[in-house]
Design goal:
This protein has about 250 residues and is an alpha/beta fold. It has one domain: 3-Layer(aba) Sandwich (Rossmann fold), CATH 3.40.50. Helices cover about 45% and strands about 15% of the residues. It is built from eight helices and seven strands; from the N terminus they run E-H-E-H-E-H-E-H-E-H-E-H-H-H-E. It has helices at about 15-25, 40-50, 65-75, 100-125, 150-170, 185-190, 195-205, 215-225; strands at about 5-10, 30-35, 55, 80-85, 130-135, 175-180, 235-240. It is globular.
Length: about 250
């Protein structure tokens, strides 16, 4: 029970990787607040995960929503030990086709949300004896990608936000690290058919380990950073990509 007695907030937690992180945290003893803009899915996921799971509505680009989420946690638990900034979107378009609105939407959800999350969670994180912030970036935060103008730039930015916050918060006993997944077997990947499935299988051959990550393989890394096992790690970048960046 690596997270016994700890309180966590995970953004984008109603489905996908966020839900996987929540399941892992709860199994390790944490109380988890599942934050998402989709109320229906969020409430259903919280019910599915049991008494240790609580849903809070959160548009990660909205400051009022962040404050309301923190007020809810403070009223129920009084402290926040773990923040996982997981919410994100992926839009790839040619330079000539991408609009300003499309670009800025990615920046707001992938990048601004990380800043807002750390800012608004800070007062409750300061009440923890040993707090941890985990910002989910991507291996796209290390290299360019055709059409990835918004996604790549936002994921690069998460690295900078993480390092800057780690330096400021180290003296407050708050660790800040980033996680950089490669390709992960999401439901969309598993349900692919036809040409899309063929493209995915072809892509797997470019990965040194010849497969995508299982969601749990990413969640276990996030768990390590959330727990006291990583007590001397801060301002660092943790890669889980089957060898792609190598």
């Amino acid at each position: 029970m690596k997270l016994a007695g700890k309180v966590a907030l995970i953004t984008g937690a109603s489905m996908g990787m966020g839900k996987g992180h929540a399941e892992t945290f709860i199994a390790e003893g944490a109380t988890v607040y599942l934050a998402d803009i989709n109320d229906e899915k969020g409430l259903a996921t919280a019910t599915e995960l049991g008494d240790k799971a609580h849903f809070v509505h959160l548009d990660v680009t909205n400051e009022e929503d962040w404050q309301n989420a923190m007020d809810t946690i403070e009223s129920k638990d009084g402290v926040l030990d773990i923040l996982v900034n997981n919410a994100g979107i992926s839009v790839f378009l040619p330079l000539s086709a991408m609009t300003k609105d499309q670009y800025m939407k990615s920046i707001e959800i992938n990048q601004l949300s990380v800043f807002l999350g750390m800012k608004y969670a800070l007062p409750l994180l300061e009440k923890s004896k040993a707090a941890s912030i985990i910002n989910i970036s991507s291996i796209e935060g290390f290299h360019g990608s055709v059409g990835g103008y918004a996604y790549v730039s936002s994921k690069f930015a998460v690295r900078g936000l993480t390092r800057s916050a780690a330096l400021e918060l180290a003296g407050k006993n708050i660790r800040v690290n980033s996680v950089h997944p490669g390709a992960v077997e999401t439901p969309m990947v598993l349900e692919a058919t036809g040409a899309q499935k063929e493209a995915i299988e072809q892509f797997k051959t470019t990965i040194p380990m010849k497969r995508m990550a299982k969601p749990a393989e990413v969640s276990k890394l996030v768990l390590f950073l959330a727990s006291d096992d990583s007590s001397y790690s801060t301002g660092a970048e943790f890669i889980v990509d089957g060898g792609n960046l190598a």
